[in-house]
Request: fold
Amino acid sequence: MTLENIKLDIDYVRSQFPAFKDPLSKDWSFFENAGGSYVPQNVIEKLTEFMTSTKVQPYAKYPMSKIAGENMDLATDLFSKMINAKNNEILIGGSTSINLYVLSNALKKYINPGDEVIVTNQDHEANISPWLRLKEQGANIVQWKFNLSNQELEISDLEKLITSKTKILAVTHCSNIIGSVNNLKDICKLAHKNNIIVIGDGVSYAPHGFPNVKELDVDFYTFSLYKTYGPHLALLYGKEEILKDLPNQNHEFLNGIYPYTINPGGPNHEELVSLIGIYEYFIKLYDHHFKEKGLSILNKIKKINNLFSKHEEHIANPILKYLHERKDLKLLGKNKIINKDRAPTISFISNVKTSKNISEELVKNKIATRNDNFYAWRCLEHLGINTEDGVVRLSMAHYNTYHETKNVISALEKI
Reply:
């Protein structure tokens, strides 16, 4: 069977997630994955195992401590391989917001009065507000605004903004409102021609396929692990040659020991170890769907990414089509996913009802979703949407089903 003919075994996928059997959640169609995903059994087992057997200070010689340290290192090493990074190029912190705040403090050394930092108005606030703080260093903040007609960030507009003073560009890989996947590889290529450091926010991209950071050639990349089937942590990748040159943000005695230099206090031990469960889940998916042996972790992840993408197109495109054709609703972003050019993160507003009213009606129909600005209030402001009422967002992941898609459309028909 060719890869093109292999389909995601959705029954097998859902069998790995206890939430789909739990009395509280089993009868709901879960459409708030962009806010945080369910976790597979492997993650729960790893967390329980650590808390039961190895909840001690790691890296000592006695067995409980030795195993704890080894598993912490293993989690970091496995995740580095999953995104094609070196294991000294990633750190695990409390959240994307915290990681980027610390990184912005470290990158102050590159900023002189009059230098320019480019941010977008399509991003989540986590990848905007830390860079606004560089105004304290004398930086001028330049905004790369998305095109109102198609809601896309146009690279041609970025070219016009770049000057010899531009030092940093912060940009989302995928909008958590519009859903568009931006061409981060081409953005990095343009930026690097002008000696600009690029910080990519992959929070809304990574749940639908882990990135290959070396292929993107991005300088820093971050995403939230609680949205990629794990605990409430976040990953930050940075190129080794930049990381080792950044000033220490941690304890004085850790000076020079990167990437710990930009991870104050270090990672949460038990939750870090539970990340091994995400790796195990992905490998179980690979072994269930594919027979080819001897592939690298990165290539296995690539195959699983492709399975996710095909399935997500199958379940998201009918909703996109339905919303696009409704005259009383306004869909944001593209009305069809083609070759992973948008995520199955679907936002819309109504011209006759508030977003709050629609989301409450969806909840009454056992559709788990909400209305909000989802911390992308600059995006909504640019679109002329009330940032308090926000949009209705239906965000899907690979474990959603076509049956759930029909549930959503049926509920919208009633409203």
Q: What stands out?
A: The chain is about 40% helix and 15% strand. The mean pLDDT is 97. The chain has two domains: 10-38+298-414, 47-277.
